[in-house]
Amino acid sequence: IDPSASNQSNQTLIRGIVSISDAISFFFDSHSVVSTFEHILCLFSRSAQPISFNLFLLQLHSKMGSWPNPPTANPIELVSLSLAAGGLAGLMVFWLQRKLKTAPRGSDEMNKLSDLIASGARSFLKTEYFYLSFFVSVFFVFLVALYSADPPTAANDRLDGIRMGGCFLAGAGLSALAGWLGMAVATDANVRTTQAADKEGLAKALRVAFTGGAVMGFTVVGLGLFGLSLFFYLMTINRDEDERLALVYAMDSLAGFGFGASSIALFARVAGGIYTKAADVGADLVGKVEMDIPEDDPRNPAVIADNVGDNVGDVAGMGADLFESFVGSIIAAAALANGDPTLVMLPFWVAGAGIFASVAGYFAVGTKDGASQHQLLFALHKGTIVSGILVLVFVAIIISQSFSDGSTIVFDTDENGMPMPVTDTEKLGWKIFSCVVIGLFAGILIGQATEYFTSYSYWPTRSITEAGVTGPATVIIQGIGIGMISCVAPVIILVATIFGCNALAGGYGIALSAVGMLSTLGVTLATDAYGPIADNAGGIAEMAELEERVRETTDALDALGNTTAATGKGFAIGSAVLTSLSLLTAFKLKAEVDVVDITDPVVLASVLFGAMLPFLFAALTMLSVQKAAGAIIIEVRRQFATIEGLREGTADADSDKCVAISTQSSVEEMILPGVYAVMAPFVIGILIGPKALTGMLGGAIASGMMLAIMMANAGGAWDNSKKYIEIEGACGGKGTDTHKACVVGDTVGDPFKDTSGPALNILIKLMSMISLVIAPIIAGWGDWEMWYYGLIPIAICVIATIVVWKCYWSDTQDISAPIEKTVKGEEVDEEAAKAEE
């Protein structure tokens, strides 16, 4: 950045950096945070030494003068800070990757195992993205044709089809890219974490794993914010409308960006979740339960597929999920801004400030060797605390300058759609700031509540372990009860958030609270993505037959990862609910739905239909895991029965076969849930009308939130109840009947927490985003007005159901036949082999 440059783009980038650097210099002068930014600034100039931070500010102020005036409708100025923040996130990714490369990879055997995991993950994503390319192509053509034939803009602009289709492609492409890059780094960081645990101890292993997770976090926020900001600017080009309408129509097009991101997120979450849990369940049931061999034992043919699944489900899947939440919250808030430049700008700038704060939060994470679970949790919490405090400081400065006295804000419109300016803008600004604060603290509180119900440091998870004394049945009963009661705290927090933000700033305030909750996603996602890296590190330690102390170190990190993963899922669900409600409000506005009467039979029936959809979706994904796991079980049993010496460890397992089965099964099983999720808004919205679609979305959001929280928390608690025995030696330790009972509970909880539960928050966001996309098309329709067009999506659902049933579901497999012969170690006779084939 050259402060003497006169071109507009350079100056707007400088404005963005100055706005944040002023805050840092004022509050943290001569602090370590300043030195961190000095090192980052040296990357801009490729200097060998850090640039003096204060000198940099003086140089900028000498050219720029005072803080710029509140923004006009100049689109590039509205996203100047977000573009700069996206660039900073890219620099952080580059620096973190270089730092990660300095950590040693360990022995040849460890590298061989890591390469197998990376190869399997790449193979899965290539197959998944190949199939998704057809879906993306079809919907790209559909959106271009629909919006070209019936442009929703007042100017009847035929370019709207290209705009909508381009945004859809960009959202889908960037979401897929975020998942791919995060997976690539995670599969490289796992072996480095194992080596650090072996040679340098717990503190270094935590830092390596967290660095790998941080690459995922900053990749997601960087690609999301930079891509969304860039396409916002592109969507404002060649608009003939006035400035306010140009911004409104630009946000209409950006709904396509959210649709693309949501679609990839859904399929990545579902397919990745089915993959990881099919392999996990198959490996556990045959390996640990039937063969009585340890977890991640190299003799188990499914163990590589299990470790691959950690990356494709919990890294690539979670990355795509939160990428969609991140951009979806910004789109929802800006769509509710009524075209006011300041209100459109604010969600972009809040998200940009969050990236700057997350950079500082990364450097706050650290611990010491021999740390307890409480100390490890606090080590990660330090990052979120520091970034949370900083983002509030930055947003306060942005609000104070943007909502000054004398400026005009159009916060709402009258009944005729005409702008209604607000005169007391400073008061409005601090109300909006309060919504950001509420959203940020709501996310922290939901995370704490989730941690309480899923960490074995607290009573709920320990009570499941104690229930295992009387067998697996009581473990299941206790776990389901804990999952159900864990819904209470998050719901109360979200209800209070919605009430508070609505009283302060209406629907826009609720939307901005979601932006505030996700503003520190860079460091929050790092703590989540760290979990599967630690899990893989433990698997590599076991398969490479390293010393027991190494496995103890990785187990401690893995148990922490289970808790942070559960916390991340709670955080994702909370943000999904707020984002979905904001999208629902935006849909109601765009679809011209004035009043929704819950006693109206059409609305009430639609609410019931919407409430059913999450249960149908969860059921399909659970059944898919069972079906795919059955194929893995048969293959693992076959190998133990037919490969001589495998049980004794003198022969190698054919892990590639299990990887191939998991890949094919997960891709096949994602089709039907995905079709139902995408088609549901088209069926109700076109068949009945926008009023009914509003009711359907309300029902789906309410039931989807409850089911997602229950399944995610119950699964996390079941998992850590087993870890409590394995790490702390509770109830007699490993190998006891209590331990075996908790292993069964963990197996049941796997698809709860890693497949069905996490996918539900994407379901409600995807349906809300699709509804927003079609809102301008169905605006003003009465009930059943265009019902004949609604028969088309119904026909698509019926055809998809028949095809999937005929091709994949009708051919059931008998997984019980070879049990006795496999367990007893007897040879499989020719007739049994033929029947199995």
Number of H/I helices: 26
Q: What order do the SSEs take from the amino end to the carboxyl end, as H and E?
A: HHHHHHHHHHHHEEHHHHHHHHHHHHHH
Biggest beta sheet attributes: 2 strands, antiparallel
Oligomer: single chain
Strands ordered across the widest β-sheet: 1-2
SS class:
mainly alpha
Number of strands: 2
Beta fraction: under 5%
**Radius of gyration in whole Å, from Cα?**
26 Å
Q: Which residues sit in consecutive blocks of at least 5 with pLDDT less than 50? A: 1-10, 22-71, 817-830
What is the distance, rounded to the nearest whole angstrom, between the alpha carbons of the first and last residues?
A: 65 Å
Helix content: over 70%
Shape: globular
The pLDDT mean sits at 80
What does this structure look like?
By secondary structure, the protein is mainly alpha-helical. The protein has helices at 8-28, 32-45, 53-64, 75-78, 80-101, 108-149, 160-199, 202-235, 243-290, 303-335, 341-362, 373-402, 425-454, 459-467, 472-485, 488-518, 521-543, 548-590, 601-642, 655-669, 671-687, 690-728, 737-778, 787-809, 819-824, 830-836; strands at residues 409-413, 419-422. A two-stranded antiparallel ribbon has the order 1-2. It is globular. The model is unreliable at 1-10, 22-71 and 817-830 (pLDDT under 50).
